[in-house]
Amino acid sequence: QVQLVESGGGLVQAGGSLRLSCAASGLTFSRYAMGWFRQAPGKEREFVAAFSPTIGSTYYSDSVKGRFYISRDNAKNTVYLQMNSLKAEDTAVYYCVAKNPGSGRDYYSPDGYNYWGQGTQVTVSS
C-alpha cells in the first residue's frame, strides 16, 4: 500500500521558519512527482509546491514563491517543504501528495495527484 506520512508541523511565530517532512512508502519514489497542498478551515485545498522528476522542475504558488522551498531525498524516500518568513495566513493543514508517472502534467490541481497523506497542522501566531 502506498503511504505518505507528514511530520514537522507545529506552532511557530510569524517571521519564523519550519521544515515539513513526508516519508513515502509503497512506491518507486524517484519516479513520482511529489508535492504539497494546504487547507485552512472553510477553504478549498490550495496548491503549495511540487517537484517533477521527469521534467526536473519545481513549481510554487505565487503566495509562497520565494519563501517556501521543496526538495527531496530519493535515498530516504522523503520530500521536504522548507517554510521561511511564515505569515499568519500560512496557517493550515499541510498535505503531502504523490502523482503517478505518466499521469499528465497537472501539477497545480488536487485532481492531478493520486495519493495523499493525512496532513500535519501548521499554526503561525501573529
What are the salient characteristics of this protein?
126 residues, mainly beta, seven-stranded mixed sheet, four-stranded antiparallel sheet
Task: Please characterize this protein's 3D structure.
The strands form 2 sheets. Strands 2, 4, 5, 6, 9, 10 and 11 form a 7-stranded mixed beta sheet that branches. The model has no long low-confidence stretch (mean pLDDT 96). It is built from no helices and 11 strands. 0% of the residues lie in helices and 50% in strands. The protein is mainly β and 126 residues long.
Q: Determine the mean pLDDT.
A: 96
Q: Sheet with the most strands?
A: 7 strands, mixed
Helix content: under 10%
Categorize the overall geometry.
Answer: globular
Query: Low-confidence runs (pLDDT<50, min 5 residues)?
Result: none
Rg from alpha-carbon coordinates: 14 Å
Order of helices and strands: EEEEEEEEEEE
Number of helices: 0
Q: What is this entry, summarized?
A:
The protein is 0% helix and 50% strand. With 126 residues, the chain is an all-beta fold.
List the helices and strands and how they pair.
Elements lengths: L2 E5 L2 E4 L4 E8 L7 E7 L6 E7 L4 E4 L7 E6 L4 E6 L8 E8 L15 E2 L3 E6 L1
Parallel strand pairs: 2-11
Antiparallel strand pairs: 1-3, 3-8, 4-5, 4-9, 5-6, 7-8, 9-10, 9-11
